[in-house]
Amino acid sequence: MWREASAYLLKMMQLSDLGDCPANCSGHGDCNDGVCVCELEYQGTECDDINNAYFVAFGLIFYLLSICCTIQLILCIQSDFRRLKNPSFQKALRVTTQKLLYVLVIIAALSRALYFSLQPYLSETWASNMMSMYYPLLLSCFSLVVCFWAEAFHLSEKQHNNPGFLRDSFRYFILFNVLLYILLVAEFITMETTSSDHQILGNVFNGCFAGLMTIEVIFFLAYGVEVFFKIKGAFTVNYHSTNQQPTSAIGQNSLKASGQSTDQSPDLTVHVSSQSVDVSIMHQSRIGLLFQGLLQIVMVLFLMLNVTEPQWRESLPVLKRNVHDVLFRIVEVGLALWFPCVLWKSRSPESLWMLNPTRLFRQTRDEEKSQGGKKEEDWLLCRTRAPTYDSTADSSKVEKEVECWICYDHQRTDAGPMIQPCECKGDVAYVHHECLKRWLMESADNPEALQCKVCQSKYQLKTGSANILKGFQLKQGLFTAIALGIMTAGPVAVYFVMKKYPSDVVSVVSIGACIFLEMVCLKYLGISLCNAYNRASISSLHIIGKMVNRPETVVTTTTTTPTTSSSESSATSASCTSSKEPSVSIVSVSVIGPEVSSDGVQVHHG
């Protein structure tokens, strides 16, 4: 009786195993309690169907990445074309570090996107080759960045305000990339000509790429730490020599006066003051550097794990293997996504910390203005009053009110008092309080707007309570409301689409599009709120300056008709000195407000 019961139970267990997990889950999963748990690339009760959602999701991500970089590349070329005095596409298409990075990331993202799109229809060799193309292209990007930072660290004559291409390090960049693509071509040829296990060959070449990435990440972190953490290198010497020329000239003059030679001076060591460093840019660069360095280290570990995959993969359950694969793909996306993020200002490469390390210093923000931004400063500097002389009367009195350099209206009463907020002299010294406040509000997105663009002195401000709602303009508030509406309606629309079309492909595409749209709207919302807060905080400020209460009075007395220019006046004075003709006397008296001392009477005798 006992033997028959044991035999029956054993037979039922065998039949249960064979019936519940047929074909051993097709070799693409594990059987747990009679249910097949499939690997990430497969689905179905027998794990024999392709998981289209997995391939569509990652393929869509890489397609979007390539499209984003393509748009940035087009904007970069368009910006270079507009900057040329004699526009030509040949000059606009010249190779620069920024453009080459865009091109390499586009090719890398497209190779991985095509892999996820065509992998179910490709042979094993072609799928493996397309899988391996991604790593050499990314290594080319990283090596280009390393060479660029090396030149910033070693070459003091390199110009950073107009980032071009590599100079002295170009040969090392070419040598490293020749080695990379020799390995890639060797992998293609080996995969097509040999009958060995293709997976083993792919793991061997991945190990080679992991070794090269290890060497590259060492130099990446070494130069990155020197430039962005220690803020040391030739770019600091170049910056201080160009922005503090008077100090260096005084030092050279003192050396010459003491009989020392300036050519035989030791290496220049620049100690960067913490006050001259832009803390915001410094933290951005450090976070970006550490993030990319960490991703590269994790990628090296994943590639080395792939080399030893036959030893450990079968010992892990399917769920852990799936987690490993998902993390692997996310790190691959992050490596390429880093470049369009740090190169997001495609039209102004001089404002990117990765291509212009001098962005770490505060003063470079005013130097990097485009030609359109400089027109405003040039207009302020060049604005002068032409002298007025009366040639028909012997004496005249001309009263000139002190004018606001923004509105030119000295009779306004709704713009607040007339003040002198900075150290400027002449026509650009006086401004209405409310005019200047509105001027600052219009340029609230510029962190350096709270200082005079002519004399570079900071405005003395008294802070008040800020109401962020007052910082929204009509157009900005409208677009912010639209962005909030899109962010709210996006998930609802995805829910109804998935409910109406219960398909994996439709679900993945709709969710991916919704996530992308949410990210774009969230970025715009953050920028809009920051600008609104800056405008609101500026609107609550009270600008402290010298008060101007009395008009400027100019009294001119002439005995003969003077010339209309200062140069002609000096020439006439000189000629009168040598002749015996009656001399010319010009008496000028200027009184400008109580805060400015009165000028003495100046009498010029021939």
From TrEMBL:
Which terms are listed as keywords in the entry? Membrane, Metal-binding, Transmembrane, Transmembrane helix, Zinc, Zinc-finger
User: Superkingdom of the source?
Assistant: Eukaryota
Any one Gene Ontology molecular-function term assigned to this protein's record: zinc ion binding
User: Which residues are listed as membrane-spanning?
Assistant: 53-79, 100-118, 133-152, 172-191, 203-225, 287-306, 326-344, 478-498, 504-525
Alphabetical list of InterPro entries matching this protein = THH1/TOM1/TOM3_dom (IPR009457), Znf_RING-CH (IPR011016), Znf_RING/FYVE/PHD (IPR013083)
All copies of the RING-CH-type domain together span 396-462
Ribosomal protein as UniProt keyword: no
Q: Which Pfam families match?
A: EGF_Teneurin, RINGv, THH1_TOM1-3_dom
Q: Where is this region: Disordered?
A: 555-578
PANTHER family per the UniProt record, alphabetical: LD08641P
Q: What is this protein called?
A: RING-CH-type domain-containing protein
Q: Which organism is it from?
A: Patiria miniata (Bat star)
